[in-house]
Amino acid sequence: MNGASPPTAAPDRMAPETLGAALGPPVLSLHAAGVSLGATTALTEVTLTLHRGERLVLVGSNGAGKTTLLRLLHGVLRPRAAAQRQVHRPQPARGGVVGAMVFQRPFFLRLSVRRNLRLALWLHGVPRAGREAQARLALQRVGLEALAERPAHTLSAGQQQRLALARAWALRPEVLFLDEPTASLDPAAKREVEALIDGIAREGVTLVMSTHNLGQAKRLASRVAHLEGGRLLALEPVDRFFGAAPLPAPTRLFLKGELPWTA
Q: In order of start, what are the domains of the chain with their CATH numbers?
């Protein structure tokens, strides 16, 4: 595995939350949140609460608003009104940052793998004395310790995505945001990265991930959110989303069109 060490008939507007008692404490909330990018409305009246320890997977067609929602939850984008986004846990339980992001195509400086990690830790205020140990642990976590001195830009796509996960994991985030993290990977690398994501979630990290792969959503999600046109149309536990839940017509059509190619 390329050196990896992974661990083993519905209303148009849904109720915001139906599972509060079954979920952990809230981490982040959006209340009728909207995002405008210039003259374009990217998100409209999105209401949801992200709970500690859950795995929320965002699905939808291209341009549906998945990446915008990820960035809004992460705090990179701001909603139209400040009161629309609320952080419930300002002091992360894991002792690190509230959130860290992994992109589909991560960017690294033309430095070694180890120095890219140390730089990220420095930027987030980790004391110099602790950076090397945290970087080493992160590389061990993703199976890249043997490549610590290799230039990061020479790694394969799968190795770079594992390094991106190491960089995020080293920050000890409360929430890990993943924007289509396996979309550009071959099947073997995709399995490695999925296993790492699953293992990180089992450590107690809350996940929010976008994907076009509905099979992946079924494997990794505890809840699934479907977006279209910047609107949140469905938000259900994974077994109900792919099974018994009454879903809006656009969501049913989305599933009917996508499932044969992603199982």
A: 20-104+172-262 (3.40.50.300)
